[in-house]
């Protein structure tokens, strides 16, 4: 038996679980059978409790044990949520590969959590992700798999890794119905329906049952439709060709793929069903499904080496699941296509992780949702007090036990409205529909309310603030003697390395005869007038003049080139090796050969700082820094170019190619600001929403764009933050320098008129060595330049740690991590349903940001209004029932029905329809339901509700024509009577009054007078109530008493009018801040948000006065 001591141990175990990430449990037979008996004796209530609280079910039926022996596990994820998973077992054959030496038993123990497989590894003594078995693969190790796996090895791996399938289950209708009915909301509704039927409220119970059935059917339809849509998007099964260890090629289903399989990618391309790394050939890939970026990307073979393979750092060599390979090129004669090795399958792929994040979104830490639960608890306390009062009152009236129990439970269903959680989502649902009409698609509706609280918005630069395409502004040649004049037309350059680098240093490819690739490279090549050609056939047929090197692409000059008014004949140049651009390396390079050249020539382009670090110092002009500063400060994007001659037979590795280069010069690209950007940034600034630029571009270019789009005002200064990391020669340093000036303290700007600007290298050093300065810099920095994708994500998280609600807007290409990490991420993409971010806008400018914030504020205000209205509705009815019970009567069946369906439901529906305001305002709507204005407002309204109904009752009983009800008859048997009629009349007006009082419009919603549907319903219901008060006879089903005194009826209407005027005046005074004088008494202490606590000090912070050097002892 479960003793008190055992229950106490269970309670302590509940507390201890909060300190553990994983705890194992084993089934105890006698406990399991005892619980089954409990299911029967409790008529299924115990089973429902176990269904709602599975963790409690495990603790009751199991005993604690080591994870290695567990049948069930309780897990705690990174957000603190606890889940119950079952440990599964499967007999497998031991693999012969060294990969599986850690698996010494044929019985595989594993569990599935958020669709990811975790297996027990004896060597580690823990459950590990199955992907950890190959996470230490090196680039050279991947090349060993080119020979293919044997059927036995593949079968063994399939048992370990599972099927290569991203399967989003579409649950059967019966199961969906079962899960929906067991939702606490519907269980509470069912409890109420049974209670009302037992109390003879047949009509009311029937209508509520029908309405619940309609909502269930609609919910089932929407759930099934969304599941089917996601299932079709995620599931991909196709036939692929793999290479066996025998050398034979075999066509298999993609479901059977495992990590290590050698995949043959046909030249016509395919939709990739797994993650794979490219080892031979080239692939043109459309990754728009994952990133929202519509420009195809060229993938090149991975370079062998002892470094550990990681898909994020080797992005340009990795083919991701769900992406479409448009075409593939082979490199050897007889090959059917490119060669790749599978690295991840199923939910461990990039697409699988994104789908899993949709199925299991991280809980939103939003104050509104947290306070809603506390407020429901408060209503529960009110219901408990009401139940006690009802019990005492009826007990004194000698009511039967059946009446006592039914009435006490009935008051709970009245005080705690079950529709309250649904009312909280109504605003977001309406906003989602409006956003869809504006071309903004949302895959996470709860985040719409969060949009209303955004306090800081990060923007990518290229493709977001500025146009995606670029125009060549010109080139400038540089060397030991200095820089030449700017040449605006690169096609006029002499046939020297600078011209060849512009024509050849790219990763463009042909698709149906048209060049495809990076828009910047397309413009660069177009400016030279050279044309791209690709070898015919299998890519091995190469002219002898190119030394029979394998040619990836051929660049042909114009038939006749004109340089300095002379006709020059140029030879074609062949690209035989490509090292694609990497955001981490900040550069790309190619190896070329041509007829007449003595050796191969390597060309490199990239960020100027990176390129000169790889160039021979004597080839870099002394004016390098000044020239770079000049052009970047004009808003130009500057790329540096370099070259060197190499021996192609010796030097083929990237590390050897990209060193000791000769500096060539600069390529300047003009990136125009989108016409909408400045206006949106100005709007955000005016409403106190910080705008921050996060870009991979040069710092000076970013500063220029920030000034152009009004992130930095014309009268504001920019201070550069320079941080250096620890080296063998120097300690970490942190310096602040005014733009274009030194660090003279006399030049220090006044309070509040400066912005900080920092690049990625300094940001990394700041985070590592100067954590005390990090919050200060984050709060004053507006420009973050030369940031790699991982740093963008880190920046968003650091800003969130300060307490900001962070939004992020980007094109999805290099911003996916930041978009998903932000509280509100919006991707500018033509895709209707991209999984790159919670929001996707088909409008390719940032106007969607202001639209999203307006809709978020409108949704949040609507949710607040509906929540307050549903709470006040329950309090109005609660007071009516309490007052009528005191005088031995109650509301009849149709009266409840009239209030709940005709009045409240219709009003709640039209309240959520209001559109957002056309303009954003300086203050954000509150998200705290338990703040002083809300609580005072609800308290005063509740007092007015009670006073109004009591006044109506007292006025009625004071009339000389008043006839007391029959004291020997109780509740509905006493109907109709004067007490019931007076309370019914006034409470009916109160439902309408509260809808008007709490429906807030301006400034975040359009004024209530523009919500025509709400006004129409309001007018009809007001007329209906006046009719019921003045001439109740036709409504005989409401069982109202026909009081002939017209003066009395007018007095009742007058009481309702006074009730409205007082409540409306109170609401206006509270909105105007009349309670501000009490804020000192309501001492909330310091803000929980760090940035608000630091704000007073940051306002007076003068960074130019500070230059920090960490001593060796501190370091």
UniProtKB/TrEMBL annotation:
Domain Cation-transporting P-type ATPase N-terminal: 138-196
Pfam families, per database record: Cation_ATPase, Cation_ATPase_N, E1-E2_ATPase, P5-ATPase
PROSITE patterns attached to this UniProt entry: ATPASE_E1_E2
Sample GO molecular function, one term: metal ion binding
Gene3D superfamilies linked to this entry: Calcium-transporting ATPase, cytoplasmic domain N, Calcium-transporting ATPase, cytoplasmic transduction domain A, Calcium-transporting ATPase, transmembrane domain, HAD superfamily/HAD-like
Every P-type ATPase A domain range: 239-357
Gene Ontology CC terms: late endosome membrane
Claim: Transmembrane is one of the keywords in the record: yes
Compartments, record wording: Membrane
Transmembrane spans: 30-53, 181-197, 203-221, 375-395, 896-914, 934-955, 1012-1030, 1050-1078
tRNA processing keyword on record: no
Coiled coil: none
Keywords for the protein's UniProt record, in alphabetical order: ATP-binding, Magnesium, Membrane, Metal-binding, Nucleotide-binding, Phosphoprotein, Translocase, Transmembrane, Transmembrane helix
BP GO annotations: autophagosome-lysosome fusion; intracellular calcium ion homeostasis; regulation of autophagosome size; regulation of mitochondrion organization
InterPro entries, A to Z: ATPase_P-typ_cation-transptr_N (IPR004014), ATPase_P-typ_cyto_dom_N (IPR023299), ATPase_P-typ_P_site (IPR018303), ATPase_P-typ_TM_dom_sf (IPR023298), ATPase_P-typ_transduc_dom_A_sf (IPR008250), ATPase_P-type_domA (IPR059000), HAD-like_sf (IPR036412), HAD_sf (IPR023214)
Membrane topology, as annotated: Multi-pass membrane protein
Domain P5B-type ATPase N-terminal as annotated: residue spans: 21-100
Record-linked NCBIfam families: ATPase_P-type, P-ATPase-V
Sequence similarity: Belongs to the cation transport ATPase (P-type) (TC 3.A.3) family. Type V subfamily.
Official protein name in the record: ATPase cation transporting 13A2
